[in-house]
Structures are given as structure tokens and as C-alpha cells.
Amino acid sequence: MSKQIAVVFGSSSIEVDSSEYLEAVQCGEVLAQLNYDVMTGGYGGVMEAVSVGSSNGSAKVYGVTSKTFTFRPEGANPYITDEINAPNIIQRIQVMVDNASIFVVMPGNLGTLNELAMVLTLFKVGEAHQKLYVWKKTFLDATNSLRKLGVIDESVLDLIEWVDDVSQLQKLLSLPR
Description:
Elements: E1 5-9, H1 19-33, E2 37-40, H2 46-55, E3 61-66, E4 82-86, H3 89-99, E5 102-105, H4 110-124, E6 131-135, H5 136-148, H6 154-157, E7 160-163, H7 166-174
Parallel strand pairs: 1-2, 1-5, 2-3, 3-4, 5-6, 6-7
Helix pairs in contact: 1-2
């Protein structure tokens, strides 16, 4: 894995004909255009859509799957160029964290929230330092509520680059690093 890798977290349950799917395809295209390889959880929804967009360019598309997801008999999405099998969900996230140059957290559900919480925890304890781009519409209110309850420190939330859409992500990623 020689290029920088954008690890993208997001919902597994969006439909192929939805605006969220199209946005995730565009995200994958932008990441590939900016010379990132992409790593996702490897299944459907956002993970598949980002893989579709990235595979249209020169990016490698890594999918980190797990035997934990026995309810996904279809296996990895067909746009993955390299599948990495992790024995469980914790090690699946660890593989993604270990290989990330940046994190992109797109709209998602409980699994995506879990992945975001893990990354924020690793930031808090000093084990992760990558840039973190998070879709505002899905997670801003939730993280602010957790901050108000004292669950998340302001210092950790300050590390998040909040984005509204793919064009804003593209602008932020195009700034000198």
C-alpha cells in the first residue's frame, strides 16, 4: 500500500438509486482524482458507492470484510480490487485505522457511529492523528449532544473537519497538506 489511503465509513443500507448513493460515488471519484486509494468496509451502500467511484479512476479499492457479518451472504462488493478479511469487527476497524492517511465519515447508522466513536477515542488517547472529515448533516447534532453531556471533550471535537457535501470535501482535500 504505497499511495495515501482514504478510509471511508458510511451506511451499508442506502439504495443504489438514492441521492446518497450518487453522493458516495462522487466522493469516490474525487478521492481517486486526488490520488488516494480507498479503503471501506467492503460491502454495499456507501461502501459500494465509494468503491464504484474510486474504481473509475486509478485508485486501488480495499474492502475490509469480516466473518462477523454472516448476514451478508453476497460477500464483498464487486468493485473491490483487494479484499482483506478480518476475523471480527474490532480487528476490521483496526485494519482500517492502521492504514488510514485520512478518514471520511459519510452519512450512516449505528455501525458508522461506532466507527466514528472509535476514531475519536483513538484521537483522545493519542493513537490516531489523521485528518478526519465528517458529514455535518448526520453527526453534528449527535456529537454536540455528547459534548454537552460531557461524553466527548471539546478538544477532540475540534479535530473534526465538518463537511456539507463532496464539493466541500474536495476543496478541503485540495488545500496544501
